[in-house]
Amino acid sequence: MDKDRVIGSAKVVKGKVKEALGKAIGDAKLESEGKADKIKGEVQNAVGGLKDTLRGE
């Protein structure tokens, strides 16, 4: 498994937590940061998956 997949998955989790916390406390900035982190993580996870596929893993 490529390290980008691991890091990307961690960013997705971090983004979900930030987004939920932002919603809970009414902080729109924190919520939007969480959404952005989640998207970045999903992209990085996809890149890692592509690298795995190219390597034949």
TrEMBL record:
Domain CsbD-like stretches: 4-55
Annotated Pfam families: CsbD
Domain of life: Bacteria
Gene3D superfamilies for this protein: YjbJ
The family this protein is said to belong to: Belongs to the UPF0337 (CsbD) family.
Name this protein carries in UniProt: CsbD-like protein
